[in-house]
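Need tokens for this chain, all 197 residues.
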Amino acid sequence: MTHYEKNFDEVLSRIEAVRLETNEHQIIKIVAVSKYVGAEAIRDFYEVGQRAFGENRVQDMKAKAEALEDLPLEWHFIGRLQTNKINALLDISPALIQSCEDYKMAVEIDKRAAAKGKKQPILLQINSAREESKAGIAPEKAVEEYLKIYEELDNVTLKGVMTIGAHTDDEVKIRESFETTFKIYDKLRDKGAKYCS
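Here are the structure tokens for all 197 residues:
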């Protein structure tokens, strides 16, 4: 068993244990953050079963997607998106943009997707930790912002919400930030929210 296989098996076992503990029959997708590794490491992870990879820089995603075009990989954009990079990102056709920080960004993605004849799946990013260094909409505005995107924009498809947990060693605060996001997600399930990331 390779180093990758051992680590991957351990992660899968831990996730499955938590899933069984919650008694919810949910499908869990692991998006491996590949921003610090090259194409060959991604290929190695593919060989042990990983299919979805997250990148936080458009140019890195493009280079890796091109280098690995022989593999059926699913690319997720997980970084802060600049408006001048939207066209380049849409040209890669990511499975999901996980970091749409607000309605204004959704409008920009929508306009460019329309011009390219595409519908782009996105997640609305919620700043549940209320940290100034993080992007995303404030929790109290999230439902309203989500519904505005859902009802007004035709070329983005809202798939749910995401957050980055509080940046602290305090496990209670970290858990609270994810619980806040999950409660918002729960309110939006009947409006297309399938994913809480």
